[in-house]
Amino acid sequence: MQTIAAVARSPHADFSIEPIDLEAPRAGEVLVRIVGVGLCHTDLIARDQFIPIPLPAVLGHEGAGIVEAVGDGVTKVKPGDRVVIGFASCGACPRCAEHLPSYCREFPQRNYAGTRTDGSTAIRVAGTPASGHFFAQSSFAGHAVAEERNVVKIEADDVPLELLGPLGCGFQTGAGGVMRSLACPSGSSIAIFGGGPVGLAAVMGAVVQGCATIILVEPFAARRALGLSLGATHVVDPADGDVGAAIRAILPDGTEYAFETSGREAVIETALASLASHGLLGLVGVPPRPDSSLSINIASLITYGHRIHGIIEGDSDLDGFIPELVELFRAGRFPIDRLIETFPLDRINEAVAAQIRGECVKAVLVP
Length: 367
Description:
By secondary structure, the protein is of the alpha/beta class.
């Protein structure tokens, strides 16, 4: 079939809107008509070759839509079902068996390679095979071919489906990082570094968990204000000076938990230094360079029992956690609609610019 897509042809260049040819779903695959897809930083670093997916490529990995067709053997969904599309995993390795599919031993090749695991691709651009299957979906398009395992059926029909795509990555990373990976208990304290979509989802997750002190560190004033309205108890502007001192002015012993979303070494070091004794730091931010490294005082780490936890996708198990977030949204406890601005897919480059400038928190593209 032919559909439309935003195609990444060169690093650091605009996406181009082009027709593409898409294969019918094979055994174990699902064809989804996309009704909304989130724009994520990970899509941009793939375009820019931090993730070296061959170009041209169709990216997009926060899709939501309607199932139009299924391949042989698919029983999880049927045509007409509403779905959110998440990340791919093998379903057979030890981590998948522990319901931790984001740590699947095959995660990189199943999500970043630009092909199916057999090396084939369902996408042709101008008659030539092109990279797709990004997070087993490539949903910057009118339609996407996903795997049965990474689609999640949405039973509720009273929620706007186009808003739910970011639950497949960014929002579940932020919320899951606090609710699952760190598992912050009620009454605890947390400092969240970065008020983008992941950081603000973490703020909402901390509220759900009942954290008593929720500190948001964020340079954009509008996002600090939004964080306060979503439940942050304190905000810190890094431009005002020493962030660590500001946090310890609020919590003299330091924070029990810290959650870092920027990937910047200096911010990570500040977050680590802000921890209380036996505090836990969760890292989700993609570093600015593949060879980024940290300078850590090992003696201090041991003396204070500080812990560091790398987090992928908020430890989500997709079929369990995404429906949980949908129910929290329906109950008004996870108001993702307050973070989202929609753009037509053919305005993707405007959406990228608006998100980078901080004019919107989360852009969702509507084909």
